[in-house]
Amino acid sequence: MPDSAHLSTSHVESHNQKMRQHMRRFTRLTAGHSKKLANHVHMVSLYTVWYNYARINSAVIVSPAMASGLADRLWDIDDIVELIDS
Fold this sequence. Notes:
mainly alpha, 4 helices
Protein backbone atom coordinates (compact mmCIF):
# COMPACT_ATOMS: atom_id res chain seq x y z
CA MET A 1 0.00 0.00 0.00
CA PRO A 2 1.84 3.12 -1.18
CA ASP A 3 1.67 6.26 0.88
CA SER A 4 -0.46 8.76 -1.05
CA ALA A 5 1.77 11.62 0.16
CA HIS A 6 4.58 10.22 -2.02
CA LEU A 7 2.49 9.69 -5.18
CA SER A 8 2.88 12.09 -8.05
CA THR A 9 2.14 12.05 -11.76
CA SER A 10 5.49 13.75 -12.38
CA HIS A 11 7.26 10.42 -11.73
CA VAL A 12 5.13 8.67 -14.35
CA GLU A 13 5.58 11.46 -16.87
CA SER A 14 9.33 11.45 -16.28
CA HIS A 15 9.49 7.71 -16.91
CA ASN A 16 7.36 8.05 -20.05
CA GLN A 17 9.77 10.69 -21.36
CA LYS A 18 12.74 8.38 -20.71
CA MET A 19 11.01 5.56 -22.59
CA ARG A 20 10.38 7.87 -25.56
CA GLN A 21 14.03 8.95 -25.55
CA HIS A 22 15.41 5.40 -25.39
CA MET A 23 12.99 3.62 -27.73
CA ARG A 24 12.10 5.11 -31.10
CA ARG A 25 8.91 3.03 -31.32
CA PHE A 26 7.32 5.29 -28.68
CA THR A 27 8.14 8.48 -30.57
CA ARG A 28 5.50 9.95 -32.84
CA LEU A 29 6.03 10.19 -36.58
CA THR A 30 8.74 7.55 -36.83
CA ALA A 31 9.19 4.35 -38.83
CA GLY A 32 10.42 2.45 -35.75
CA HIS A 33 7.04 0.98 -34.91
CA SER A 34 6.27 -2.68 -34.25
CA LYS A 35 4.16 -4.46 -36.85
CA LYS A 36 3.27 -7.26 -34.45
CA LEU A 37 2.06 -6.89 -30.87
CA ALA A 38 4.36 -9.73 -29.75
CA ASN A 39 7.44 -7.86 -31.03
CA HIS A 40 6.32 -4.73 -29.20
CA VAL A 41 5.85 -6.68 -25.95
CA HIS A 42 9.32 -8.26 -26.31
CA MET A 43 10.96 -4.87 -26.88
CA VAL A 44 9.27 -3.34 -23.84
CA SER A 45 10.35 -6.37 -21.78
CA LEU A 46 13.96 -6.03 -22.92
CA TYR A 47 13.91 -2.31 -22.18
CA THR A 48 12.48 -2.93 -18.70
CA VAL A 49 15.18 -5.47 -17.83
CA TRP A 50 17.91 -3.18 -19.17
CA TYR A 51 16.48 -0.14 -17.38
CA ASN A 52 16.26 -1.88 -13.99
CA TYR A 53 19.31 -4.17 -14.04
CA ALA A 54 21.92 -2.88 -16.50
CA ARG A 55 21.60 0.94 -16.41
CA ILE A 56 23.21 3.02 -13.70
CA ASN A 57 20.87 5.54 -12.11
CA SER A 58 22.74 8.83 -11.79
CA ALA A 59 20.93 9.80 -8.57
CA VAL A 60 22.00 6.76 -6.54
CA ILE A 61 25.02 5.63 -8.67
CA VAL A 62 23.72 2.03 -8.90
CA SER A 63 21.04 0.29 -10.93
CA PRO A 64 17.46 0.40 -9.60
CA ALA A 65 17.62 -3.37 -8.94
CA MET A 66 20.79 -2.94 -6.87
CA ALA A 67 19.28 -0.03 -4.95
CA SER A 68 16.23 -2.12 -4.04
CA GLY A 69 18.29 -5.20 -3.12
CA LEU A 70 17.15 -7.39 -6.05
CA ALA A 71 20.64 -7.62 -7.56
CA ASP A 72 24.14 -7.52 -6.11
CA ARG A 73 25.93 -6.39 -9.29
CA LEU A 74 25.35 -4.50 -12.50
CA TRP A 75 24.17 -6.77 -15.35
CA ASP A 76 25.68 -6.73 -18.82
CA ILE A 77 24.27 -7.84 -22.16
CA ASP A 78 25.47 -11.43 -21.61
CA ASP A 79 23.26 -11.70 -18.53
CA ILE A 80 20.23 -10.45 -20.46
CA VAL A 81 20.88 -12.86 -23.36
CA GLU A 82 21.27 -15.73 -20.88
CA LEU A 83 17.93 -14.78 -19.33
CA ILE A 84 16.30 -14.83 -22.79
CA ASP A 85 17.83 -18.22 -23.63
CA SER A 86 16.52 -19.78 -20.43
